[in-house]
Write a structure and sequence with these properties.
Elements: E1 2-9, H1 14-24, E2 31-38, E3 41-48, H2 53-58, E4 65-71, E5 80-83, E6 87-95, H3 98-107, H4 117-132, H5 135-145, E7 148-156, E8 163-167, E9 173-177, E10 180-184, E11 196-199, E12 205-208, E13 213-216, E14 222-223, E15 228-229, H6 245-264, H7 270-281, E16 287-292, H8 294-309, E17 315-319, H9 320-323, E18 334-340, H10 346-357, E19 362-367, H11 373-377, E20 380-383, H12 396-415, H13 421-442, H14 445-455, E21 460-465, H15 470-482, E22 487-492, E23 510-513, H16 520-532, E24 537-541, E25 551-555, H17 564-583
Parallel strand pairs: 16-17, 16-18, 18-19, 19-20, 21-22, 21-23, 23-24, 24-25
Antiparallel strand pairs: 1-4, 1-10, 2-3, 2-4, 5-6, 6-7, 7-8, 8-12, 9-10, 9-11, 11-15, 12-13, 13-14
Helix pairs in contact: 3-4, 4-5, 6-12, 6-13, 6-17, 7-12, 8-12, 8-15, 13-17, 14-17, 15-17
The structure holds fructose -6-phosphate.
């Protein structure tokens, strides 16, 4: 999780910045990168530790503009770049066309690493700036060439009175303060002092000076936007336009996926993901056992398809609360993985210890919290770090687990010589498409809201899927239970005929995850059985299916093959959320549930 923040003032902006940072300490960010300065040169600073550390790092030399990126994890060095001492960029997000852009920039004489989008963007803006001599125009020209999900902030050494910002989909909010302007991708950092704000629309570029904001649209034409007032500065205001943290956290996912892909790289090696020691320890493993609970168990069930199908490793997935008491057998050279968003679930900790006791040769913790008990217990750590999840119902931490375990599978596959050439290129291509595809799923909210109004009247529901979407159907059903208070069950389509079909009638709707892949026809046949029993179907599919009586269809973004579970998970989260809202349920703290179970119950 990260925030982009920037400030510009008529005079020294540091007092306002330091005031703002004091407020932000409470949010628990550890990594800070900062870019500031003017005609004497642009200064890059990066600090690990609370944002207050930035005060020591920047010092007290007056400056009238600062660009920051705060991270919940380590400082995002890759997110800040100065090109040829002239153009400085701080960004969030990722690019889809990095490779072609890097080739083009190299042919123009720039250092351009396809793995470093900030380097590419700063070089491209520098290139346009050579001829256009106007930072806003140069940024706008560069943005036309960028494909991806990003928000950028840009400064030029020789024009200390300006910051330029642009977005392709990650929010940029610009707020006035007493002496100038501030911007951020979230409302919360602006709350301490902002009076009103302007929202940039994807494709727009804004020039911010201490006295005004000028916006140009995607076609380069100036556009006017009246600032909107900020609602009362209470805790709920940090929710911005969202009524609940669950909704906000669902909507954060595309940007978080993009940030993770840039931080880790698209297809990182095991050494890049887990360090040299991690790569060495995993060089000789022959099998995997994963222990987890609840949603994390569903993430683990999904990961099994990747660990077996991509990395070729026999994998078993165990419910932690049962496995800890199993008189089990662990084969030689087994990697035991504990998956837990909080890293504090007592059953998962005990199950990982049990796997080690049974003979697992290496342990790995996968968690959102780097210094959690799970991460301390495991020999190796894979941290997701998508920031605090306030809603009890997990959403962004779930998709973060999926992405990190997919990347782990790719790393293992590369190490085992199972992923080379065309297959590696295809995995890279699909991963680069993921953030925008996730954004495409969120665009289905109005359709899912219509479904929700109908489903809110039901008391029972099935979610179905096949292959790696079967665990996602189970996860969707869990979301329906915990926040929508529906009796929901997740089934593999092929299992309906072995029992569950007996329950299907006009009062039991079925939500289906139907990516158009080789198993689609089979799932369609399963769904015909539901229709024959008058069950109403709600089908999520990338295929252009026609809606009909008792057949509702929502068109999913393009097929991302192995990554489809991430997209379908987001759709089901959104549906469960909308149903819960329709029913007037308590969203962020559902009845009888807690965020983490640190003791056995
Ligand atoms: C559901 C949910 C729970 C947790 C489970 C395990 O939305 O969040 O099912 O997944 O309690 O918690 P962690 O992942 O922290 O071990």
């Amino acid at each position: 999780m990260s925030h982009l923040i920037g400030l510009i003032s008529a005079s020294n902006t540091l007092p306002t910045l330091y005031h703002q940072i004091e407020q932000l300490d409470a949010f628990g960010f550890r990594g800070v990168v900062a870019l500031h300065g003017g005609q004497d040169g642009l200064s890059e600073t990066s600090v690990a530790g609370l944002p207050a550390g930035i005060v020591d790092a920047i010092g007290d030399t007056p400056t009238n503009r600062v660009l920051l990126r705060l991270d919940w994890g380590d400082p995002a060095q890759h997110a800040m770049r100065v090109c040829r001492d002239l153009i400085g960029v701080v960004m969030r997000g990722s690019l889809q066309n990095s490779t072609s852009l890097a080739n083009r920039l190299q042919s123009l004489g720039y250092t351009a690493d396809a793995k470093n989008p900030t380097e590419l963007i700063s070089a491209l803006i520098h290139w346009y700036h050579r001829t256009q001599r106007d930072l806003t125009r140069a940024t706008q020209s560069a943005v036309q060439e960028l494909v991806g999900l990003f928000a950028i902030s840009v400064i030029e050494r020789d024009n200390p009175g300006e910051i330029v910002v642009a977005t392709s989909g990650i929010p940029i909010l610009i707020a006035s303060h007493q002496n100038g302007f501030a911007f951020s991708d979230q409302l919360s950092p602006l709350l301490p002092f902002a009076r009103d704000l302007i929202r940039l629309i994807p494709g727009e570029v804004a020039s911010i000076t201490p006295t005004q904001v000028q916006i140009i649209d995607a076609s380069g034409s100036p556009t006017r936007r009246n600032p909107e007032p900020i609602s009362p500065r209470n805790e709920r205001a940090a929710l911005d336009r969202f009524g609940h943290f669950m909704g906000k956290e669902i909507h954060e996912q595309p940007a978080l996926l993009a940030d993770t892909l840039t931080r880790n790289g698209l297809t990182p090696s095991l050494a890049e993901l887990l360090g040299d020691e991690g790569a060495r320890l995993l060089a000789n493993i022959d099998a995997v056992v994963i222990v987890a609970s609840g949603s994390s168990y569903h993430a683990a069930l999904t990961a099994r398809y990747w660990l077996e199908g991509v990395a070729g490793l026999p994998t078993s997935v165990e419910l932690a609360s049962e496995y800890r008491y199993l008189d089990g057998v662990v084969p030689n050279n087994t990697l035991a993985i504990g998956v837990s968003q909080s890293g504090e679930t007592a059953d998962t900790l005990a199950a990982l210890r049990h796997a080690e006791y049974l003979g697992a040769s290496v342990t790995l913790g996968v968690s959102n919290v780097r210094d959690s008990k799970l991460m301390q217990l495991a020999k190796l750590q894979l941290a997701n770090e998508v920031g605090p999840e306030i809603a009890v119902t997990s959403t962004k931490t779930f998709t973060a687990q999926l992405l990190s375990m997919y990347q782990l599978s790719l790393g293992l596959a590369q190490q085992r010589g199972r992923l080379t050439g065309a297959a590696l290129e295809e995995a890279t291509r699909l991963l680069s498409l993921l953030p925008r595809a996730a954004l495409g799923v969120l665009a289905l909210e109005p359709v899912l809201d219509q479904w929700a109004q109908r489903l809110a009247r039901s008391t029972h529901l099935f979610c179905v899927g096949r292959h790696s979407n079967y665990p996602i159907a189970r996860e969707g059903a869990l979301k329906m239970q915990e926040v929508a208070y529906l009796h929901a069950e997740g089934h593999p389509g092929g299992e309906l005929k072995h029992g569950p079909l007996a329950l299907v009638d006009a009062d039991l709707p079925v939500v289906a995850c139907l990516p158009w892949n080789p198993l689609a026809e089979k799932l369609l046949a399963n769904l015909q059985e539901v229709r024959a029993r008058h069950g109403e179907l709600f089908v999520l599919s990338d295929a252009g299916l026609a809606a009909a009586d008792r057949l509702n269809v929502a068109r999913m973004p393009e097929d991302l093959r192995e990554l489809n579970p991430i997209l379908y998970a987001i759709a089901l989260q959104l549906l469960a959320y909308r149903i819960a809202v329709c029913k007037g349920n308590e969203i962020d703290a559902p009845r009888h549930l807690a965020k983490a179970f640190a003791t056995e119950q």
